[in-house]
Amino acid sequence: SSDVPDIVFFTYDFLKLGQINLLDPVSGHFFVFPRLISFVNLYFNSFDVNNLFYLQWVVISITIFMMYLILKQTDKKLLWTLIPISAFLYCPLASSNYFIPAMLAWQLPTLSITAMIYFLNKKTNPKNISFSISLAIFSTLSTVIGIIGWIPGLIINQKKKWFIFWIFSMIIFGIFYISIIPNGENELHPELLISYEGYAFIATFLSTPFRLKYDFLMVIVGSLSLFLSAYCLYYFVKIEKNLRNVLPWFTFIFIAVVGAIVTAVGRIHLEDHIGNEPYYITISQLFQIGLLILISKILINTRKKPKRRILTSVLISIIIIQMLLLLPSYY
Asked: Long-range CB contacts (< 8 A, 24+ apart) of 38-47?
């Protein structure tokens, strides 16, 4: 991967030239925190990247723990879903990839977003808001798609004054972020979103945890996932009328969709780039995990109602199919 030298050779340049520039962009990415982490490890560890591999597992494990805390906030009956959640997060395509240092740049935003959702959903106070803003900045300066780390504060903030403070912080940091991007650094094509190729890219992106043989199958799975998420929204708004309780999981879904759109704008025009790169899994899995929890929550609510046995069977089948589709990623 071209991202590996951008992170690892950063340390080499410091040793050789005595220069350090954390804000040196690469194709629009600012690898500030991955570079810092890699620098400390490589500088004091003779350029051995094995520690970075183990660090990936630490980051993933902390992410799972944060999701465990969110599950407790939602419904303790959902704790069994930690098993399929772990199957998604420990997917070998994302956690055992050959370009280990570069994967950190994608996994750190996932951890930041998950932690943000937990703290914002727990209680909106100065401490949690400040910490969440710090995590949003951490996410943004890890890789370009990390900008989606600002979304949780736009959805979960429970008080108007903290929502306004979040918007203000986002604007201030946004001005700074735009100011450090060199002119012509990235070629963007938002107009391509309004086309079949644009939709296919987004649908494929959302289904990247599932490695299917044919591209059209990825589009179909992504489309079905979007349909199911729309049904879940209808269920919790119109039928259950308790959207607030499951809002964190809809936030995961929305974040993944925005991540797909952001990626499509900057990558859809590239040859043979259809949205199925393995490193996209770190973001797209948030959609599938959110969908898994929402379906499981509906299952808990309907399983004791005789008139909805068919729906219960369908929901169980969807969860089983999710796990079956995940199997190809493990070999």
From this structure: 38/7, 38/8, 38/10, 38/11, 38/101, 38/104, 39/10, 39/11, 39/14, 42/8, 42/11, 43/11, 43/14, 43/15, 47/8, 47/11, 47/12
Q: How far apart are CA 232 and CA 236, in angstroms?
A: 6
Decide if 60 contacts 107 (C-beta within 8 A).
yes
Q: What are the residues facing 138 on neighbouring strands?
A: none
Q: Where are the alpha helices (DSSP H) in the chain?
A: 3-17, 32-44, 50-74, 82-89, 92-95, 100-122, 126-140, 151-155, 160-179, 196-206, 215-234, 243-267, 281-302, 309-326
Q: Residue 129: phi, psi to the nearest 5?
A: -65, -45
Let me know: does 266 contact 186? Beta carbons within 8 Å.
yes
What per-residue confidence (pLDDT) applies to 304? Answer: 67
Q: Which residue did the predictor score with more confidence, 177 or 171?
A: 171
To 5 degrees, how large is the angle CA 223–CA 294–CA 314?
A: 70
Give Rg (Cα) of the chain.
20
- Residue 213 CA from chain centroid, whole number: 24
pLDDT higher at 46 or 190: 190
Distance separating alpha carbons of residues 115 and 296, to the nearest angstrom: 22
Q: What is the pLDDT of residues 122-155, one digit of tens each?
A: 877 888 899 999 999 999 888 888 899 999 999 9
Query: Tens digit of pLDDT for each residue in 84-118?
Result: 999 999 887 776 554 555 677 888 899 999 999 99
With 0-12 / 13-18 / 19 or more C-beta atoms within 10 angstroms meaning exposed / middle / buried, residue 151 is buried
120: its two tokens: 């914002």
- 235-290, pLDDT tens digit by residue? 999 988 889 899 999 999 999 999 999 988 888 877 777 888 888 888 999 999 99
Q: Judge contact between 71 and 297, C-beta under 8 A.
A: no
Cα–Cα dist 35/19, whole Å = 14
For residues 21 and 132, the answer to whether their CB atoms sit within 8 Å is no
